[in-house]
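Model: You mentioned two targets. I'll fold them one after the other.
Researcher: Yes, keep them separate.
Model: Target one:
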Amino acid sequence: MSGGVIVVTGGAGALGGAVARHLVRGGDRVVALDRTEGRERLTALETELGESSLLGLVTDVASASDWNATLVHAAAKFSAPTGAVLTAGGWTGGTPLHAAEDDAAWESMLRSNTETVYRGLRALLPIMVKQGRGSIVVIGARQVLRPELSAGAAAYAASKAAVATLAQTVAAEVLASGVRVNAVLPSVIDTPANRSAMPTVDPRYWVSPGSLAEVIAFLLSDAARDISGALVPVYGQA
């Protein structure tokens, strides 16, 4: 779908930025969304890739009203989106569920991982169904298929499983409309945050943001026109 307009949530993050760069270099225009704390990185990305190719917007992607305003702005700048990559999310863990003292991790993971994808799908799918085309990629995790790997972070595993289930369910709902929805399931992504959090682990075995961006771009493209509802493992050597 080269030449399309692709919305990228979490656009100021390591993966979102890699996806935006890859798509712009492939001829797409990108609407990169992130929270207020990502404003400077969005501005830098806009400068790097050019305002004619990338629009950076501060948006709460867990908010329906923010999504509505954002898509109006994006359509005025470029046109209606033809694709989306919902990378916004996070990780909280380190405590077994039975030992948690409150619901903070649960509420945080549902909001940052599941609610952001739900709101994105709610905002984007009606537009794509109406125009009769579109492709969305959501970010799951290896723990969707191997939840035991997330022992100590049950809320994270559950939130990502919900994301994968949403993707597969809505993929079936919109398939006849010419819209596709897929999920990638990465293992650990080689980001500065993960390197800082796991300094004793060799990152050579992780998945690079650039490599994952290539898989995502394929799923967005017409080359993947017969793929929808897939959970694509991207594990590197982990």
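Model: Target two:
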Amino acid sequence: MLSILANHNQDINRLIEKGYAVSIDSNHLVVRDIPYLDNGKSLQSGSIVSKLIVIDDKHVKIDDHQIFFCGAHPCELDGTPIRNLGGGLTTLTLSSKDLVVERSFSNKPSNGFADLFEKIESYVNIISGPAINLYNANPLTFQTIEENNESVFKYRDTLTSRAEIGDLSLKFAEETVAIIGLGGTGSYLLDFLVKTPVKEIRGFDFDWFHVHNAFRSPGKLESDELGKKKAEIYQSKYEGFRHGVKIYPKFILSDSYSDLEGVTFAFVCVDKGSSRSGIFELLMSMNIPFLDVGMGLDRDKGSISGTLRTTYFSVESSKDIMAEKLVPLTDLPDDIYKNNIQISELNALNACLAIIKYKQIQGFYADDNTLYHLLFTIDSLNLVGENGKN
């Protein structure tokens, strides 16, 4: 990755050619081996970390005038902190274990920085000046840094780095998530999960992809997709975006143990109560926590009304929640949802509620009241829930 960027970004290439120990980590430019003095006038080594704006796979540009720094506050020859370095204590999670960001600095020249080379040079002169003077230290080590390429994404995850939420994204690193049913809500869940850094996504749906499916699933319709298996369509759509997407053209039944081996969480997105029953039995027997989603819609007053439901079954409380009969486990003969009414916004909203709840469970989002059963009423746009189950 670094070599590609160096070939297409003159400022990065200049840094490397001059001898800086440059690498790319989590969409940040990193310059290691930066000498500085601590408050005891001892020689230390730190790292400068600078945000990048990613234009495409080959081109980046400077983001702002600030930097992050791995190390203590650099000091002058007399041991006092170097002045004119605004900022303060902060943290930033990077993939390389040797990079521990401790603070940020801000020193903006009147005309700003023209590029990354000018920015790094300016900060090195400020931070390393006393160490160079006292110890003849040299920040130009020509060190080559091995890059960490463990991301599940085939494109750089610039969203995470720009938002500085890398530490939260790590909560998904060991997750293998199953989506059982890729209809309306399941297809939107798949779209959301593909952009979540879980290790693996397994999707299961035996059905074919027809026109009505295109009206309640994300993305555009390609004419050659009609009449193919949903599994084939979604595998092709998402495998170019990330690794670890595995979509299977099959049903999950009460004896599908091998299909769910290694799964750490599941979403159940089926519209038949009788199918749910067997799936629930399987998940509970394998100690897999899961979320079940569903809709209860009708046209008694001419317009469609009803509720969207998201119910969480933890390993510890699944039997208790089953006893509350919050989820239909038999088929409803007059379910309007089976009439293929095109309600993509409700599918998407149901998927949103489910993915938010999943991310709360993982600690990505705050969760003040531990709701395990959510009901969204269409008529009043009201969301209510029940809590108390762990």
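Researcher: Noted. Anything on target two?
Model: The chain has eleven helices and 15 strands.
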